[in-house]
Design a protein that fits this description.
Helices cover about 35% and strands about 20% of the residues. It is an alpha/beta fold and about 250 residues long. The radius of gyration is 17 Å and the shape is globular.
Length: about 250
Amino acid sequence: MSIEVIAHRGYSAVTPENTLAAVRAGLKAGAHSVEWDVQVASCGTPVLMHDPHLGRTTNGVGPVRRRTLGQLQALDAGKWFNPSFAGEKIPSLAEALDLVRPTSAAVYCEVKGYRELEDLDRMARIVRDKEMTSRTIFISMDYGVIDRIGGQDPEAGLGYIVEEAGRFDDALARAKVAGARGLLDFDYRLLIADPSLVTRAREAGVQVAVWTVDTRGDAEALVALGVKRLTTNRVKEMKAWADSQS
């Protein structure tokens, strides 16, 4: 397997994160995959947003889940990053999938927040309706979320985020149950500190991805361990380096 470059929140180093502009920029820069975060509007519509509250990345305030899709899309999600992105909207999950679908790119969809279990079912259904199931991996730090989505769609990719070493055993056990569609998504620093985690995952037949790798030195160290899925903010630079390794 060649090195897979995954655009973190889209190309978030040069565009406002989790917007269509970011997704578009990541694809243009050559990312093999795009990662984004999902919260849920009050109407139940999944939208691209990292934080549960609006203040950091929009001109709105308060919880995302208290606004309808229409109210969310009336906000500005770009000007905070740079005035040239003024007017950029909060995209729905469906809109983001529509942007990726004509390409060959895959999607890592991190579920950050939801109101009820039916919201998770809706996310899986939207991906299925867009015919993107085979190219989408749902990831989350909440393993119950991933298990729920896996139960709703037997073809969905399932990624268990490991942000601290103490969660490794649980995540590995769940990923093994998921079989070929299971994946562990590590904070890369855990693997640098303890390479045996990669060895144990690979011995169990479980795929490994990492976040968020922005330097060539770290990328080289991870690839030497056998890690080939690298999430990065520096898409253009990491893609150029990855191409040089093939």
